[in-house]
Records
---
Amino acid sequence: MRTVDELDVAGQRVLLRADLNVPLDKSTGEITDDGRIRASLPVIRKLSERGAKVLILAHLGRPKGDTFAERAAGGPSLRIVAGRLSELLGKPVAFAADVVGEDAGRVSQALNDGDVAVLENVRFEPAETAKDDAERRALAERMARLGDLYVGDGFGAVHRKHASVYDLPALLPHAAGDLIVAEVSVLKRLTDNPERPFVVVLGGSKPSDKLGVINNLLGLADRILIGGGMSYTFLAAQGYEVGNSLLEADQIPAVQAVLEQAAARGVEIVLPVDLVAASHYAPDADHIVVSVKSFPAEREGVDAGPETRELFAAKLADAKTVFWNGPVGVFEFPAFSAGTRAVAEAVAGVDGLTVVGGGDSAAAVRSFGMPDDAFGHISTGGGASLEYLEGKTLPGLTALED
Ligand code: ADP
Ligand code: MG
């Protein structure tokens, strides 16, 4: 992959595909975690300092509707993100109210060397995510007219075959941005000869999201700790009662196959031994600690219990490489965040390469007030890093390679 340092960007209009897909507060619409904007700053600053005219393409959320107008009326606008970017850069950032329309053309033409502008949410253009190659290609051609060069730095979107990620780089001289280079080099260290023991912690809500990656990790990791919502399906597969906890009953056979594979390959699977069981899913729900051997039928699991927290910490203590994806409890409710906090602290204490992947996991770490540098790397791309570890080819990386 060519890097930005190998592109002559001075005086050129650079279309930068960034990942600015930040979580927004459902009621106020405010940005609740600007980590992805901050992670994009190095390449934006570098391009601007080298005299490029920087035009940023990015998506936000999943707007619905058949046309640009319908999506723009209901979907999240990138205007608020442009505002935060301007604060973080300490200089004005122009905003275009469309992606390839009149306003985008006007903003692109008005840029001076070193200026930065953000285009409206690329997913307001239905063709951005079209399955049809020709439709996506036509949109990419209109995007290409706005710039001279392309820099791909939206790691969180590289697993998507989308116009601005996959089709556009083929139309312009291109390079990979600093964030993508950093993300890929860390993931390579996990897959090519990781230092051992290599311990993986997986949580989050559903095993169906993560069985693909577990299967591939069985060939890489020495030990896999499974917590959070997905652990109930593993516990159920072993015959335990899980009450009203999250359960994907249809995944039980696949989970059993994972357990058998792990045993055959000598990979240790560690499951919770006790849980915090709440009366219902609410921040102030009544809750008790129970052993997994005696889970009450009328309660639901919302966090790892104290013995599980100690067990997971002990299983992480000797690790030389760690990959952690997914909270082990409903960390959004402070009463049920202790398990995830314990995992975060144990991972931070590891003497070796520690990688945190996943939007919610990163948000959890920040909500505990832990500095980003407590970890070796916090990935900005949950789905992208999981697909990389699954061994899949990522369209956005392939597009930057040739
Ligand atoms: P990431 O974004 O880090 O990849 P996921 O999206 O897979 O993580 O999972 C995050 C979600 O999993 C959080 O919203 C959290 O509340 C939920 N979760 C974790 N443990 C539980 C549990 N025991 N019960 C219900 N939800 C859970
Ligand atoms: Mg998530």
---
Amino acid sequence: MSQTSPVPANSIQHSKDPLRFIDVDHVHFYVGNAKQAAFFYAFCFGFEIEQVSDLTTGSRESASYLLTQGNIRLLLTSGLHAEHPASQEVAHFGDGIKDVAFTVDDAVAAYEQALANGAQSAYEPREVSDEHGTVLSAGIKTFGRVVHSFVSRTGDYTLDRVKHFGLFGPRFKKMGQLGVNDYNRANPCGLFYVDHCVGNVEMGQMDNWVNWYSDVLQFKLFKHFDDQDISTEYSALMSKVLDSGRELIKIPINEPAEGLRKSQIQEYLDWHDHTPGIQHLALLTSDAIDSVAQLRHRGVDFLSIPDTYYDRVWDRVGEIREDTDKVRELRLLADRDDQGYLLQIFTKPLQDRPTLFFEIICRRGSQSFGKGNFKALFESLEIEQERRGNL
Ligand code: FE2
């Protein structure tokens, strides 16, 4: 039997740097129907539906599915009754991301250090354990409805074991044989890493959250970003990028800016219960052509890019290793900075509300975010906003 218990704050030895992140432990979605969402993300994006925790494994409050691909772990959770936080949040926000969780050496020490640095608690340390090991987690509040959990693992539940098909924690079990998993193994989509995760906050709040990440989690303002290019008449947003260090994850923060038409960030907030949240996850591939061909074949709905974009893009970007005809055919966007180039593409919203979407990104040296594509991209986004009656 597994058990959950609060953890006394002084029970754990503190390591030297408690906020040293080992990895992104998982990205936790709250969704209306986790069983169905698991198939959507598996079929459209190639994730393996690897494990489940539900009534059959003794989870009486919620059902969760662990989806994996490369080093990406998505946890999809639905409440099993109206009072469960996942049910309540879905009622307010629709499906979306609740938690970007980091693996640390000691979740209690990380949590206490973050509180000492000025964070507010989202939930106190709690330990779930059984005869195979323990998963210890504690959470702090970041912008809007979003939480960062710190997770430390022992026994059979260490992240290394999880990465090699070990169980995610107590009350999880492996899925049985599934056709969609067999199909994905034979037809991989090639996504392997969470490159960045973007937050949308209210107008005037971006710098507060930039300071928060710097003070609380010791993130650094990313040097390669050029402030001068972030607000155009098309973009109507401001953005600053925070870097966790150790090449782990970057977190850009957007805020709406005044423009001729309604900011895409304001549209997000309007449909997200006027609450900040995560706008997109960027998933890394090492072969954009193969990945995006696979995703298109599976019916993923991407933002459309006009033909005229390809008239001039190669003057700006120069030579690339990929076949430019294929780049055009797949409607990939390209950009270059002083370190190299990147290819990227953006899905339309992943649910009915114009909130969360995915970006697929392939980096060939470039460490930036495709600012050369802002104009083309925002023109395309405005067409979508107009279709939704939100301009
Ligand atoms: Fe992005």
---
Amino acid sequence: MRAIALIPGDGIGPEVTRAARDVVAASGAAVRFEEVVAGLRAEREFGTPLPGAVFEAIARTKLALKGPTQTPFGGAYRVNVERGGGRRDYPSITIALRKELDLFVNVRPVKNYPGVASRFERVDLVIFRENSEDLYLGRERMVDEGTAEAVKIITARATARATRFALDYMRREGRRRLTIGHKANVLKMTDGLFLKTAQDIARDSGFAVDQRVVDALCMELVMRPEAFDCLLLPNLYGDIISDLGAGLVGGLGVAPGANIGTECAMFEAVHGSAPDIAGKDIANPMAAILSAGMLLRYIGDASAADRIETALTAVLREQRAVTRDLGGTAGTRAMTDAIIEKLTA
Ligand code: NAI
């Protein structure tokens, strides 16, 4: 039995990770979950949003399934981490985990599912987001009362490893084309370095490689998303384009994701804690379930992941037990139970 650290998270996190956990159990995959607490509950119970026990669990299991965690806007909120004799602080729990565990690339597949209404058909994208630097290092300061400053860091090393990961993934998954997104026309040094490094590495990969300025990329993606295959982006644009991508195929409820590192991997949906619908049994569990499916594929159990996707697809096709965002009336639990029923039939 492979152990997986499970972080339920905040808002809808506990509801959707419970769904993912139950669906994985019903798939027969040889895994077990060890729950650890991060987020608002951890802050209440342990006085910190990210207790050391979370790192201990992930260091042991090398795998995590994470629910979304809430980050307050503005203010002086920082997540303090004391590990390995050092003390560091980060703008959010998710960024702290990604940095501390060296989860250097974020993989976010975006595709149409049968029965999920969207404006587009034949969308089948994979977004690779560099996950360790750019503006997300959170190095900001108030220069004076009316001026704020943030530091954007891009390194050839981090860009290169994200690019190499993307190319390996593309080879494994039989993908065809890599589009590099950037703003090198304005940010000539930072995004210029990202673009040049990625192009140099991808040039002889055998894949078609092209590039787009990120604003034009946004426009093209909402005009003809089916024309794109794989996208490679620095951290901030990757974050934004991931939500845009979710919107192309039915919304945040359907978009899974994975943070991959050299030692560990952490799987989490693209969506946040959705405080507006938390605790109401109406959140779509699909993104969390698909993220768990990505985890199973990552550990080599493609057959359990396929079974889960088949069961989920059957439920989506029938349209009988789907959540409100998918045009149905079912609750989170009822949709989960319908998927489990298909898996165990
Ligand atoms: P959000 O993704 O939580 O919600 C945006 C909209 O999408 C809301 O209307 C919400 O109801 C809807 N939505 C999200 N997931 C859904 C689902 N599974 N089913 C149905 N509808 C869904 O983004 P928002 O409101 O900007 O952020 C809320 C909180 O989440 C913030 O504190 C933010 O920092 C945090 N967040 C955490 C992330 C993480 O832990 N990885 C990622 C993104 C945001």
---
Amino acid sequence: MATTSATATLEINYINGAWLPGSSSTVTEIINPANQQSLAQIALSEEADTTRAIEAAEAAFPQWRTTPPQDRIQHMFKFRQLLLEHADEIARTTTQENGKTFAEARAELQRGIENVEVSCGMPILMQGYNLEDVARGIDEMMIRQPLGVTAAITPFNFPSMIPLWFLPYALTTGNTFILKPSERVPLTAKFIFELLEQTGLPKGVANLVVGAKPAVDTLLHHPSVRAISFVGSTPVARYIYGEGSMHGKRVQCQGGAKNYVVVMPDADMETTAKIVSDSAFGCAGQRCLAVSVALTVADSVKTFNEALLSIASKIKTGNGLEEGTTMGPVITQQSKQRILGLVEEGLNRGGDVLLDGRKYEGEGNFIAPTVISNIDASNPLMGSEIFGPVLTVNESQTLDEAIQVLSKSAYGNSAAIFTTSGAAARKFRYEVPTGNIGVNIGVAAPMAYFPFSGWRDSFMGVMHGQGKDAVEFYTDKKVVIERWPKEWSRKF
Ligand code: NAD
């Protein structure tokens, strides 16, 4: 992404059923991170564009709210079909603007589609409950109602999946919705909205606004926005959680991460190393569930390291659309420099480089897999989110020690253990303070019908994204107590 003064811009926003460019006078280029080619020129949205989207969503709400859930889900059935029919084109767009491989882009879309599928159960999922005779002749019921205008602000690393953690649930519960995707990857969102438009949704029910801080601040401050979902880095999550809550909104914020994996000596080392390598270097390490530190317990270090280095050194870094590429570039040149800077800073404090991917040449933002070992607990590589293809391997003598080390992290997104011992696995599941746990799983990503959890600095809020939590997030509970004495009724 870069800003220039060129003029022709793409109609990137979808507001009240119409495609429009943003109103910024500066033009932003969307750059392919694999070759620095310009994919599109867009004008970002300002306060006025975002306000127009909020007003459109507000105007559409009364009609959409009264549309029966059974009718609302018909749009999602059509949407699912269209997403499947165009899956390869969407994935290609994602690879071009994000850099991940085509297979990774196709896989993330599939996880997004699963959320569309779950939302089709809304006529059952959003039912309340009731009880007759809470006192003699008095009945009580809880009904769920949509909130009104809702919005999601999403990051660059999963351009198709993360918007779909929110959009299907918001719409099928009867809310209207505004997506503010990452301004670094807006083309996937545009593609998805073009398909959504084909489902015949009424104008204003779903809106797309591509922008940066001015668009986000308008959503945070506008009184008509009732709920905001956010996924991105922890500092921005903290800002959005604070500001949104202060303005009376329901807010859920998924933040950054630092994920540990514990390798026990009884683990199957070949399989473990393969899965850990996929987790650390898949999507060039730009996954919020990517393993960043491997803690080898007791004598597992030697066999694990040998197997890991053998697998990681065979990863083929390159353009994600080219046959044979198994890892793409990182998102921007700035991101590459930030990652290299963090590695440099860490190595200045000690550590051995077991695999060095820092010297990767080429016009894209490439870093090849990098493995570092023997750093101490205070080294920034142990605590900071790197968000790039860098794995640190450190030794612990016991499982207790490994759990102690990973429990010091400020983050709590995910942790995993590799073992053949049920007792070790249970202890890990029981004691580790992260929201998602993997047992012999490298990327512990919850399925669409489970909440995408996250603790500590990785999550702010109460209800998570996906599944039943999403239904809870997008509805308000109303409790009704009724008395209808028969002597008040006319006799028939
Ligand atoms: P980011 O925080 O830079 O941006 C996320 C969104 O916030 C974007 O839409 C962006 O436009 C907006 N934004 C950025 N700065 C802002 C500001 N100052 N004020 C208002 N809005 C602002 O994150 P990113 O670089 O796009 O994504 C990577 C981060 O997302 C990583 O930290 C990663 O761990 C995290 N992430 C977390 C999860 C999770 O489930 N916990 C999932 C995916 C990504």
